[in-house]
Request: fold
Amino acid sequence: MSPDNPTDGWLKKKWAILDGRRCLLKGGSGATQQEPYNEVLASILMDRLGIAHVPYTLLVQEGYPYSVCRDFITPDTELIPAWYLMQTRKKANHVSVYQHYLDCCDALGVSGVREVVERMITVDYLLANEDRHQNNFGVIRNAETLEYLGPAPLYDNGTSLWFDKPTAMIGGGRVVCKPFKNSHEEQIKLVASFDWLDLSRLDGIEEVWMELTRGALFLDESRRNAVARALRGRIDRLGKLSRTWFPRSSDAVAGDVMEDTKYSGQSR
Reply:
């Protein structure tokens, strides 16, 4: 039970005061209850890569896992999701959804958006994130002056790592992708440069996953090992891709108008 829950989505969640700070607790789903573990691993992964994000920790109550994060919005600020930003101007038919988002942010005076979005796309590729819809990223604005302060830190990464797939399908099969393409292999092509990326910082991340999920009531040894192997496979594939990367020009990206995904109004 919670006195107030202004967040959307279908996962069980509540606000709580922990150590004097307002925090959001968010549960898992299905037979594996895997999302909270994914959220914490994503936080560790982004720590290692130096990517701005909302830190998550793990809380287990009566065997059920919950991810915990502090409220990153203050009484003086507000989160403006990407979907709302993209309604501030009409998208030309010859402009991609990706470029349209960048253009809207630029018109509103929000700086540093491309770099943050490229890191988001990269993290989502590594984690096989399936739910980066247009309400799961955005910018922060001063609630009083309406001044845009910059991109929001990355948050809500739990719907990833084959969370709802049978163990035998982990690492294989089709993984849903959002928000700009319906394939991670296509979406990663929007990244202009991997000069910032040092994948050696993720050495041993599989062991981190195994330790994080040790004793998890809903995750058996076979599934834990399958996720660890699949995660290493994603890291290795991105490593090969980044070493042979030939980025497209900004004009080519802007003209990529294939609209693979649209905001469905659903979130986890």
Notes: Confidence is low (pLDDT under 50) at residues 262-268. The radius of gyration is 18 Å. Residues 9 and 268 are 4 Å apart (CA to CA). DSSP finds eight helices and seven strands in the chain.
